[in-house]
Design brief:
alpha/beta, TIM Barrel, eight-stranded parallel β-sheet, 12 helices, 8 strands
């Protein structure tokens, strides 16, 4: 299976009602329309920015199906899948496939430490259960599991529909090593915001990011400049947005993005407890950054 994914893959947050905290599907549709109008190349609901870990099964399914319908095949959609059990991960992956997702992004999570064989079997079971591509997602900061380049390459060899990799450790050498181990045949995507310039320079096929919720133009400009080989323009546009990227990572994706959307007069509610709204000091810093980007 060849990947359809490239460029800026935007992660919409999951809006919650300011009235009762329920999932706000109408606002989610508006947010996805806003992202698509901004020119992003793909939509990835239910990632870390989408607070998928804090949703009930019914909420998760509603967000997945609403997102896919809102995109309307205008760009590819990759739905985030993470669950403590393989059984529930398979159930979610099958639901996403039936709903029309173009791919799923699988992040293994664990209470007990998983060994390599258990991780391989997890991906193999999900791969055998669905017919759409899988993006392997390595993010030890949120999952507690760190997959080595050698293990990732093995999974790509042994599970036919694991056809792409999102690497979020922030270690550019892992991307180089993965490329070596797969002879450059497996596209990789950057998941570390402050590493975007280096990752694209290293050959990343795209950049998975929540930043377009607040400013889509700058990530797209960076990607376009790199495709043209215009490193000077790429550096300029990257360093312009770097303060925003750093704050998003420092203060947390859903927390920062929801505060930023409110500053931009788009109310997506607050993050779900135990997450808390952005602090007053950080909100002031975010406001200054967004003002500078719009100047």
């Amino acid at each position: 299976m060849s990947t359809q994914f490239h460029g800026i893959i935007a992660y919409p947050i999951t809006p919650f009602s300011s009235r009762d905290g329920s999932v706000d599907l109408a606002t989610l549709e508006k947010l996805i329309d806003r992202l698509l109008a901004g020119g992003v190349h793909a939509i990835a609901p239910l990632g870390s920015a989408g607070e998928s870990a804090y949703l009930s099964d019914e909420e998760w399914e509603a967000v997945a199906s609403t997102s896919i319908k809102a995109v309307e095949k205008r760009v590819p959609t990759v739905v985030g899948i993470s669950d403590l059990t393989t059984e529930n991960a398979i159930r979610k992956a099958r639901f996403a496939e039936r709903a029309g997702a173009d791919a799923v992004m699988v992040l293994p999570v664990s209470y007990w430490k998983l060994n390599d064989e258990e991780i391989v079997l997890h991906y193999a079971a999900i791969g055998n259960a669905i017919g759409i591509p899988i993006m392997l997602y390595n993010n030890p900061a949120t999952s507690g599991i760190d997959m080595s380049p050698a293990l990732i390459a093995r999974i790509c060899r042994e599970v036919d529909n694991v056809t792409m990799v999102k690497e979020s450790t922030g270690d550019i050498q892992r991307m180089h090593r993965l490329s070596q181990l797969t002879d450059g045949a497996v596209p990789f995507y950057n998941g570390s915001n402050p590493l975007a310039l280096a990752a694209l320079a290293a050959g990343a096929t795209g950049w998975c990011t929540a930043a377009p919720n607040l400013n889509a133009a700058l990530p797209i400009a960076l990607y376009d400049a790199m495709r043209k080989g215009d490193l000077e323009s790429a550096r300029t546009v990257f360093y312009k947005q770097l303060p925003l990227l750093q704050l998003i990572v420092k203060s947390g994706l859903p927390t920062t993005v929801k505060a930023g959307l409110r500053l931009l007069d788009f109310d997506a509610g607050s993050p779900r407890a135990p997450l808390q709204p952005l602090s007053a000091d950080a909100t002031k810093e975010l406001s200054a950054i967004l003002s500078a980007l719009s100047a």
